[in-house]
Specification:
Blueprint lengths: L9 H17 L5 H35 L5 H34 L2 E4 L6 H15 L6 E3 L5 H4 L5 E8 L4 E7 L8 E3 L9 E5 H7 L1 H5 L7 E11 L13 H13 L3 E7 L4 H11 L6 E5 L30 H4 L4 H7 L2 E5 L5 H12 L3 E8 L7 H11 L3 E6 L7 H13 L3 E3 L6 E2 L3 E8 L2 E9 L11 E8 L2 H15 L11 E3 L3 H17 L5 E6 L5 H12 L3 E6 L16 E6 L4 E2 L2 E5 L6 E5 L5 H5 L1 E7 L3 H15 L5 E3 L7 E2 L10 H18 L1
Parallel strand pairs: 1-6, 8-9, 11-12, 12-13, 14-25, 17-22, 19-20, 20-21
Antiparallel strand pairs: 2-4, 3-4, 3-7, 5-6, 7-8, 10-17, 11-15, 15-16, 16-17, 18-25, 19-23, 21-26, 23-24, 24-25, 26-27
């Protein structure tokens, strides 16, 4: 078999993942308002895909052409991407139409400017004058207009065409979604049950004359929607007189004017207007030009309001209390008693924020260290760190300035923390710091005792409500000593440490993963039970994939739950026939990274911040941690088994990337996220009753 057929291109695998998101929007068993929101998630994902992955493919293609290398494979990949995206766009439009009909069955109508009654039209014009007109500032397009500099990445615009017998004028209107709600609920009409919602785009369309008539003469005026996506990559200056924060700020400015990689437009837009915009934007043959519906920036649909009955969206699952924490006066007493494992959003994230709040005021606490990748807008984590510094504690925060799309926010957090007296470090310049670590040092009697948090997800209060992630709290001396050494490595990268317990990138993750897989291969060769069970977001590293192929060929049973990209191809005879892969997409985003190795009957269980991608293994600071407590280890294995038994939301990953649902057969219906919630609720109830 050709080596090219041993792996799926990661870009196509990612599109297959986003297709699974679109399946949720198409699934009629999903509450109708949630289906609308999944359309928004799909659109938001696709925006990021073009800004990052397609932009990267385009750069590779241009480099190949300039260097006179073989551009055919990259050109072929770009063509496959464009073909797949167009197919997904067609599916999206059909699903959108079906969802609109579904809303109507519940008396929620998403109407346009042509469906207004006279009374509604009068109300809307007044609403436009009072609430919106102040934010509308059209740009008239003429031969001097540089649209590529004017248009902002991924905002939605209307291109207005004012036509008279003498001339045609064009104007660009930015839809002011930062200043006004994208969805406006119309007043209820007397005696009618229906609830009407109109998009901001259509309000502007209806009121075009209020914008242009005072200043221009025309017979007709029509507006068509469009958006542009830019390359999200940027270069950093090597000016030694600039700080990293200054370099990052300059880099973000580059992103604002980076090359466009996608132009999406209303398919009703006149061809002459399409060609004009392409010319003005400098759209090349390598860029994606995608005709679509009359609305863009569907990511705003993530926040679509439920103005109907409560059953039109997922009912909230009240987060579970942790008996281990609640049965002690302080978080430190709880962790002193035993290691504690939390699984969000099933458990409450407040135990993390409370841990840091108590650390900020506890007189025994001497030192706090924490690594930051993404934070909530109103972060209680940051407040506690600032409180701790003001209480005289030594606080060190590693801020990752290159966290994609959070760079600007992290620059501001770094400034705020520094001003409050927190020592801020930006880590190793060549390595993103993606670890999820916190270390608190207390004076207990005559000794210093360390308490560590090691997690799979960010210290982010908002995402902790929708992302599933594990957090381990421990005061294990050897592990907390190694966490301290990770912080030392991040701050002083010239220092080298040997890690016996933690699995640390880029230091030893690759060798430790290889060693664990090889141990299973050895077991299989000796006739012992050998298995690997993985839960991960993405896997694309060919070295690790080849090792898993070798394990499969040796008879090791490999089960994988992969949310996103999977470059590995299961089921290849004599190579990966012992590998099975599923993917679960449901109401919560599956985010943990977990590995379970059979280990001759004594399962080795790791949780980690790292996906099995080359960047995470070799080019980032990542930390994995073994779970030693037998009860916690079994809890993780139980949760993975629940997910593997999913007969509702699990899709099979195969070489065709067909996203077929896992067949249920005669088995009972299991929805793993709900089953996991019930499992953890029972675990906590049993602890409370013990």
């Amino acid at each position: 078999m050709s080596i090219d057929h041993l792996y799926v291109e990661k870009e196509l695998s990612w599109l297959s993942f986003n297709e699974r998101v679109l399946q949720e929007a198409a699934d009629k068993s999903v509450p109708i308002v949630e289906r609308v929101r999944f359309l928004g998630i799909f659109s938001n994902n696709l925006d990021e895909f073009f800004r990052v992955r397609v932009a990267d493919v385009k750069r590779r293609l241009l480099i190949s052409k300039v260097s006179k290398g073989d551009a055919n494979p990259t050109q072929h990949l770009l063509t496959k991407i464009q073909t797949k995206v167009l197919k997904l766009q067609e599916d999206f439009d059909l699903i959108y139409t079906d969802v609109i009909k579904g809303l109507a069955r519940h008396n929620i109508f998403l109407i346009n400017e042509d469906q207004l009654s006279e009374q509604q039209g009068l109300w809307l014009k007044q609403y436009f004058r009072d609430k919106l007109l102040r934010y509308i500032a059209p740009i008239i397009v003429d031969r001097r207009t540089d649209l590529a500099k004017i248009l902002k990445d991924d905002l939605t615009y209307l291109i207005a065409e004012m036509r008279s017998p003498e001339q045609v004028k064009y104007a660009v209107i930015e839809i002011p979604t930062d200043d006004a709600p994208r969805f406006v609920q119309m007043p209820r009409e007397k005696g009618k049950k229906r609830k009407n919602v109109i998009l901001l785009d259509n309000i502007i369309r209806y009121c075009l004359d209020q914008i242009f008539a005072p200043f221009f003469q025309y017979e007709t005026c029509h507006a068509y929607s469009m958006k542009m996506t830019r390359d999200a990559e940027y270069g950093l200056s090597d000016d030694i007189d600039q700080s990293l924060m200054e370099q990052m700020s300059e880099g973000l400015k580059q992103r604002l004017t980076a090359e466009p990689v996608r132009f999406v437009h209303d398919r009703e837009m006149p061809e002459s207007m399409v060609e004009l915009i392409k010319f003005k934007l400098g759209i090349s043959n390598f860029d994606s030009v995608i005709p679509g519906g009359r609305y863009h920036n569907f990511r705003d649909f993530i926040g679509f309001p439920n103005i109907g009955r409560s059953y039109l969206e997922h009912q909230k699952l009240p987060a579970v209390n942790s008996h281990d924490f609640d049965s002690h006066i302080t978080a430190f007493d709880a962790i002193k008693a035993k290691d504690i494992l939390l699984y969000y959003p099933y458990h409450k994230f407040r135990y993390v924020t409370e841990f840091l709040r108590q650390a900020a005021i506890d007189p025994a606490v001497r030192d706090i260290k924490l690594s930051v990748y993404r934070l909530a807008k109103r972060s209680r984590i940051v407040k506690s760190l600032i409180d701790a510094a003001e209480n005289g504690k030594k606080v060190t925060v590693i801020v990752e300035l290159k966290a994609r799309f959070d760079e600007e926010a992290n620059i501001e957090w770094a400034k705020a923390l520094t001003e409050a007296g927190v020592k801020v470090d930006f880590g190793v310049p060549s390595l993103k710091c993606h670890s999820k670590l916190c270390l608190v040092t207390r004076k207990e009697g005559d000794e210093l005792v360390r308490y560590a948090h090691i997690g799979t997800g960010n210290f982010h209060e908002k995402t902790a409500k929708i992302y599933t992630d594990f957090s381990l709290f421990t005061r294990n001396r050897e592990i907390t000593e190694e966490v301290k050494n990770v912080f030392e490595f991040i701050i002083h990268s010239y220092k080298r440490f040997n890690f016996k317990h933690l699995v640390v990138s880029p230091t030893d993750s690759r060798s430790r993963i290889y060693r664990a897989i090889d141990r299973e291969i050895s077991s299989a060769s000796r006739g012992l039970k050998a298995s690997i069970f993985l839960k991960i977001n993405n896997v694309d590293d060919k070295g690790i994939i080849d090792r898993l192929y070798k394990a499969s060929s040796a008879g090791v049973k490999v089960r994988m739950i992969v949310r996103g990209m999977c470059a590995l191809i299961p089921g290849i005879p004599n190579l990966s026939e012992n590998i099975e892969v599923i993917s679960i997409v449901d109401r919560f985003l599956e985010h943990p990274r977990v590995a379970v190795f059979e280990n001759e009957g004594e399962p080795a269980v790791w949780i980690s911040s790292a996906d099995w991608m080359t960047r995470n293994i070799d080019r980032r600071v990542e930390v994995g941690c073994p779970i030693y407590d037998p009860a916690l280890k079994q809890q993780i294995i139980d949760i993975l088994n629940i997910q593997w038994s999913d007969t509702t939301k699990a899709r099979i990953i195969d070489k065709e990337q067909s996203n077929q649902y896992k067949p249920r057969g005669n088995r009972r219906k299991i929805r793993s996220q709900i089953a996991t919630y019930e499992y953890l609720k029972a675990v906590e109830q049993n602890k409370a009753g013990a």
